[in-house]
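Entry for the shared binder. Reason: the reviewer on the internal report wants the predicted structure included alongside the sequence.
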Amino acid sequence: MLFSAAVAAAQQPSAPEPPATALTIYNDNFAVARTTLNLDLHPGLNSVETNQVTNLLEPDSVVLRDMGQPDASQKPSFRILEQNYESAVVTQDWLLQKYEGKTILFANGRFTDSDGKMIPGAYVEGKIIRGPTQTQDPNYGYQRTEPLIEVGGQMQFGLPGTPLFPASTDGLLLKPALRWQIETEKAQKVKAELAYITNGLSWEATYNVVAGTGGAATEGAQKADLLGWVTINNHSGADFPKATIKLMAGDVAKIQPQKGFAAMGRMVTAQSVMVANEVTQQAFDDFHLYDLHRTVSLAEGETKQVQFLEGGGISVERHYLYDGSGYDRLDGFMPGMVNQTQNLGLNDSNPKVRIIEEIRNTEANHLGIPLPAGRLRFYRRDADGQMEFVGESMINHTPAEDTIKVTTGDAFDVKGARRQTDFFIDTSRRTLDEYFEIAVTNQKTEAVTVDVLEHLYRGDNWEIQQKSADFTKLDSHTIEFPVQVPAKGKTIVTYKVRYTW
């Protein structure tokens, strides 16, 4: 016996309000959606469907299970024989193809009067010779062929107006739908959980750091306020009138689907500041899960913002970094050998000194929680108390007790210059000597400390034999000289490096 149960059918005005949907949204444009279906099953075969799903659902990710059977070792209360996902939602192109060979009306502007009668001359009759087609070219991607319409004995590409189709919706799929063939041994009412992965939902974190006027032109520690926001975007093709939202932070492995034409929903922009309920986070597996702790409405095409972090009196430390060569790797390098090209790393010497802002993510610094990756903007108040934007950068996922390092720009009054002063190769002894001079100038009214970065990539075996300042070895091919540069002055660093092979 067949039993047809339409779950939350959108076409019925008397349909009950759809149940809440729990969304766990990931950084990489996908989410796990979970909702409930009340199944009224009869003995034998049952046809069940729901259209409370998204346009970008991944069909093979769907899980439908009895919520009353949490133990997987129990015998299932029902058995799914077949599952179908229908996503060919009706579009203008689809209808044009359906009505190929038929004559319909095309309207130009308003085509009915106040009584609903057709206005003469406001429309034309056209025969659809060929509807629009879409083909995939391996070199150019998807290609769309224009429709071909016959009007007044003449054929034209493109539409002569807005096509008017018959009002019948029989056989038209207005929303994507999931359909199952379910078999059960007895009549039962089952509260089932429907879970699936969908694309088109994403979130990202943004941080705004506002520093005061003190220390505006100096390095070292400064006090600032920090506000953290999450921005949630819904382009899944579905509305979520009641959604509980969690946000997963971390690099979760996910195979990306083939790129194609995504459904385009209406564009809505909304900002919702939710501070009444505190956003909390907890460790989950090897990632971090943030819970908004409230039910929200998330419409298709909507952007929603939520404040999740607020800290005051945070210490921010400014540093300056000069990387004169900007050379951080050597193509074709052979281990155990030395690159003997004299001008290695000398082309396009870099004069710019980077501004680095550091924030310790610790409880002592009024933070100390895992911070998801995102954009961090710096603002500073000027002498009039107004906020001015002074730079931004992206940060990675930052655990508690770690340090955020952000490049906010290049210093205007601090510059560098780097040059090779000598170069000598002794092939018989297998040695190469290279001499450098790095000058850093400072036109500020106060002294600054600049970390001078040098990359030693000619070979694996090297030794600094002469130096005008102490350095720190950062890794096997990088050293750093922290140098003091006086106000309105200059500091010169010199060193000699010997490579052997």
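Summary line for the report: The two ends are 84 Å apart (CA to CA).
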